[in-house]
Design goal:
Number of domains: 3
Number of strands: 18
CATH class of the largest domain: Alpha Beta
CATH topology of the largest domain: TIM Barrel
Strand content: 5-15%
CATH architecture of the largest domain: Alpha-Beta Barrel
Distance between the termini: 72 Å
Structural class: alpha/beta
CATH superfamily of the largest domain: Glycosidases
Length: 694
C-alpha cells in the first residue's frame, strides 16, 4: 500500500469540507468509547478502495479524537477496528455477516471472543468497505454511541449517479456555483487534489457513478472518446475508481460524422456500427471499468436516429451493442419533445411527448439500455405530477432523473430543500401492477424485474469554495446521495443527519435549521408558481418572475391565463388527453376537477379565478394569500438565521446570510409582480385589503 493516508486538505472545519467537517466536539463518554477502539486499525487486504477507506478512517480519528492510530497488519488482542471484505472477516474472525450477497452492502458489528475485542466494519465487497467506514465516521461525528453505529445496510438502488453539465470551456449549463472544477478554457484541468476531495465527498453518501460532461455535447467534448482526450479522462477515472465510483461520458450521436467524417450516423449502417465498436474498444483500453454512455438524442436540436427514419430503440441499441462485450451500459434520456410548438394550437401538449415517444418501444431496447426519465413530464418544476413513463414501461429498465441544481427552484440563492419533492416522486403509487406499485420499486428493478435501475441527478457543484454556491444547498447534494441509497429514509431524517454533520449538535441550531429546510420548498412554491402551473420565469436564465415570459413562445410551456380563468386543460373530455397516460385510478383522479389534488389543479385543468378549492378559498384568493405568506416565510428564514450568529462559524454564517438577503428581495419581487399581474387580469380585489400594485 502507498503512504498517502494523510493527504487530505488541512482547512478542516471550513465550508469546503461540507458535511465531512472533522472539527466536532464529542461528549467525553463518546470520546472515550470510540477512542478505546480507534487506537488500532487492522486491515489485511491490498486494494486501492480499501486503502482509501483506511485513509478516511485514519484521518477522521486523528482529527476528531486526537489519536494517531497504529495500523495493524495482523490480528491483535488490543481493542481495534477491523476494515475489510466479508471474505477477509471470515478468515480473520470466523464470522459471517448478514446479507453478504448484496452488492455494496456492509455490516458494522462488535466482536468479542476470548481476549479479542473489536469493531468490525465489513463490506460485502470493496465498495461496501468504504461505505461502511463513512457510516462509522458519520455516526461518530453526529454524537451516536458505538452501539448506535452498529448496523447492516445496503443500497436500495443499483445505480446512484451524478450528471455533470460541465462544458470544457469551464462553463456549466444551469450551473450556480461558479465555474467547473473539471475544465477551463477548452482544456481538462489537472487539479487532482480537488477531484479527490470531490470523490471523497460523494462516496461518503453512496454515489457510485459520475457523468463528467454535459448531455449537450459540443465540438470539443465530442472528441472525449478519442485518444486526444482519453488519457485525461482516464486520469479522472483513476481517482473516482479508488472511491468506488465509475466514470461515464455523455456522447454525441453524430460523433462518427464529426470525428471521422463518415457520411452518416445511421444506427443500422454497418460502417457506423463498426465505428462505435472500435470506439468502445479504445475507451476500455484506457478505462477498463468504464461505465458507459449517457445520450441526449433528437431533443432540443441534438442529433439522433430520427434523421435516418429510425427510432430511439434502434439508436440506443447501436451503442448498447458496442458496449455490451465490456459490461457497459447506455443511459438514454427521455427528455424528448417538439420544441417548435405553436401556442395557438391548444391540442399540442409538451407534457405528452416523452410517453408518446417511448411507450410504443417498450421491450425493444437491449438489456443494457436504461431510459433516464425526468421526475415530471415538463422540466424540473417546483410542482409537477409524476412522469407517466414510470409504470408505463414494463419491459425496459428506467432511471429516475432529478435536478439537484436548482434551475427552477432558486438557483442556490433561495433556500429550497428538495428531498420532500423527491420523496413524493419515489413514493408515488403508479398502480402499474395494482396497488402498491411505487415508483421507488420500479426504478430499483423489483416491480418488473429490470436488469438495471436507480436514480440519477443533475449536480449542483462548481468551483465555489463551498462547492454548491450556498452552503445550505449542500443539503440537497447530501440528501440526494442518501435518498438514492435508501429510499425509505424520511426527509426529516436526512435533514437531521446533514445538520448535525455540518453544524454540530447544538439543539437550537438543529431545530431552527431543520425548520427552515422542511418548510423551504412550500415557501418557495408559495411565492412563485401556484397550484402546479409551473414556469412563469424569466426566459433563458429561469430566475425571477415573468408571468408571460414563455407564454407565446415555441417551448410549449403555457399557462393560458386570461381575464376569465387560468390553467391548462389536459383532460380527455375537453383538453389534450394527457390524463389518459396514467393508469387507473390516477387517470380518473386527475381527469376529475373535483378529485384532482389542489396543488396540481392548474397543471390539469383550466378553471375560473372564482373556482373554490378544497381549502375553501377561490383560486385568485389562494394566489394572493400564498404570495404574501411565501414572502413572510422567507423573511422568517433570514431572521432565524441571524439569531444563530454566535453559533455558526463566521464564514458559513456570512455566506448564507448573503443568500437570504437575495432570497428576500426575490420573494418580494415574485409576490408583487404575480399578485399585480392577476389583479390587473381579473379586477378581483384581495379580501384582506393588502397592498397590491395596480
Amino acid at each position: 500500500m502507498n503512504n498517502s493516508r494523510y493527504m487530505f486538505n488541512e482547512k478542516n472545519g471550513s465550508v469546503y469540507d461540507c458535511w465531512l467537517r472533522y472539527d466536532k466536539q464529542l461528549s467525553l463518554s463518546n470520546k472515550e468509547e470510540y477512542g478505546k477502539f480507534c487506537e488500532n486499525i487492522f486491515v489485511k487486504e491490498e486494494n486501492e478502495v480499501i486503502e482509501n477507506a483506511l485513509n478516511e478512517l485514519n484521518f477522521a480519528v486523528k482529527k476528531v479524537l486526537n489519536v494517531n492510530p497504529s495500523i495493524l497488519r495482523k490480528i491483535s488482542s488490543f481493542p481495534h477496528i477491523f476494515i475489510g471484505t466479508s471474505e477477509a472477516a471470515f478468515k480473520q474472525y470466523n464470522v459471517k455477516v448478514n446479507n453478504e450477497a448484496v452488492s455494496e452492502g456492509y455490516t458494522i458489528m462488535k466482536f468479542e471472543q476470548g481476549d479479542c475485542t473489536a469493531i468490525l466494519i465489513v463490506g460485502n465487497d470493496t465498495n461496501g468497505v468504504i461505505y461502511g467506514v463513512f457510516s462509522f465516521i458519520k455516526s461518530m461525528l453526529s454524537g451516536k454511541s458505538i452501539q448506535e453505529a452498529l448496523l447492516t445496510d445496503a443500497p436500495k438502488n443499483q445505480l446512484r449517479m451524478i450528471n455533470h453539465w460541465d462544458n470544457i470551456s469551464g462553463d456549466i449549463e444551469r450551473g450556480y456555483s461558479g465555474k467547473s472544477f473539471l475544465y477551463s478554457d477548452n482544456t481538462i484541468l489537472k487539479d487532482y487534489a480537488r477531484i479527490k476531495d470531490y470523490a471523497r465527498l460523494i462516496a461518503s453518501v453512496g454515489i457510485n457513478g459520475i457523468v463528467i460532461n454535459n448531455v449537450n455535447v459540443h465540438e470539443y467534448e465530442t472528441k472525449f472518446i478519442t485518444e486526444d482526450y482519453l488519457p485525461d479522462v482516464a486520469a479522472f477515472a483513476d481517482i473516482f475508481r479508488k472511491y468506488g465510483i465509475k466514470t461515464y461520458l455523455s456522447v454525441n450521436f453524430a460523433a462518427p460524422m464529426e470525428i471521422d467524417g463518415l457520411e452518416s450516423a445511421d444506427p443500422l449502417d454497418e460502417t457506423v456500427k463498426a465505428w462505435w465498436k472500435k470506439t468502445a474498444e479504445r475507451i476500455y483500453s484506457y478505462i477498463p471499468d468504464f461505465g458507459g454512455f449517457l445520450v441526449k438524442a433528437d431533443s432540443e436540436h441534438r442529433p439522433g436516429p430520427f434523421t435516418y427514419g429510425r427510432d430511439h430503440a434502434q439508436g440506443a441499441n447501436l451503442l448498447a451493442e458496442a458496449l455490451k462485450p465490456f459490461g457497459g451500459i447506455v443511459i438514454w434520456r427521455c427528455f424528448v419533445y417538439n420544441c417548435e410548438l405553436d401556442w395557438r394550437d391548444r391540442s399540442k401538449d409538451r407534457a405528452k411527448a416523452a410517453y408518446e415517444n417511448f411507450k410504443p418501444l417498450d421491450g425493444k431496447f437491449m438489456d443494457n439500455v436504461i431510459l433516464q426519465v425526468k421526475n415530471g413530464p415538463m422540466d424540473f418544476q417546483i410542482r409537477e405530477p409524476l412522469s407517466p413513463l414510470f409504470g408505463g414501461m414494463e419491459k425496459t429498465s428506467e432511471l429516475m432523473e432529478f435536478e439537484i441544481a436548482q434551475e427552477y427552484t432558486g438557483q442556490q440563492i433561495d433556500l429550497c430543500y428538495l428531498i420532500p419533492m423527491w420523496k413524493e416522486c419515489l413514493d408515488f403509487d403508479t398502480y402499474a401492477k395494482g396497488k402498491g406499485s411505487y415508483v421507488k420499486n420500479i426504478v430499483n428493478g423489483s416491480t418488473f424485474g429490470s436488469k438495471y435501475g436507480g436514480v440519477a441527478a443533475v449536480g449542483n457543484l462548481g468551483d465555489s469554495k463551498c462547492w454548491t454556491g450556498n452552503p445550505m444547498a449542500q443539503a440537497n447534494l447530501y440528501g440526494f446521495g442518501r435518498l438514492a441509497w435508501d429510499t425509505e429514509l424520511t426527509s426529516e431524517e436526512i435533514a437531521l443527519e446533514w445538520i448535525k454533520l455540518t453544524f454540530g449538535l447544538d439543539k437550537e441550531v438543529t431545530l431552527k435549521v431543520l425548520a427552515m429546510l422542511l418548510h423551504s420548498r412550500e415557501a418557495y412554491e408559495k411565492y412563485t408558481s401556484p397550484l402546479g402551473i409551473g414556469w412563469m420565469v424569466n426566459p433563458n436564465y429561469h430566475y425571477g418572475p415573468s408571468v408571460d415570459g414563455y407564454e407565446y413562445d415555441k417551448w410549449g410551456t403555457y399557462h393560458y391565463a386570461d381575464f376569465k380563468g387560468f390553467g391548462v386543460d389536459r383532460t380527455v373530455a375537453t383538453g389534450t388527453g394527457y390524463t389518459s397516460q396514467y393508469k387507473e385510478p390516477n387517470a380518473s383522479m386527475y381527469e376529475d376537477l373535483n378529485k384532482c389534488p389542489d396543488e396540481l389543479l392548474l397543471f390539469f385543468h383550466h378553471v375560473p379565478y372564482t373556482h373554490v378549492l378544497k381549502s375553501g378559498k377561490t383560486v385568485i384568493q389562494h394566489i394572493y394569500d400564498t404570495h404574501f405568506e411565501g414572502f413572510d416565510e422567507a423573511e422568517k428564514f433570514r431572521e432565524d438565521w441571524i439569531s444563530l450568529k454566535d453559533k455558526i462559524d463566521e464564514e458559513t454564517f456570512n455566506l448564507v446570510l448573503e443568500k437570504f438577503d437575495m432570497q428576500l428581495k426575490n420573494a418580494r419581487e415574485w409576490r408583487d409582480i404575480v399578485n399585480t399581474y392577476f389583479y390587473r387580469k381579473t379586477g378581483i380585489k384581495d379580501i384582506k385589503n393588502r397592498r397590491i400594485y395596480e
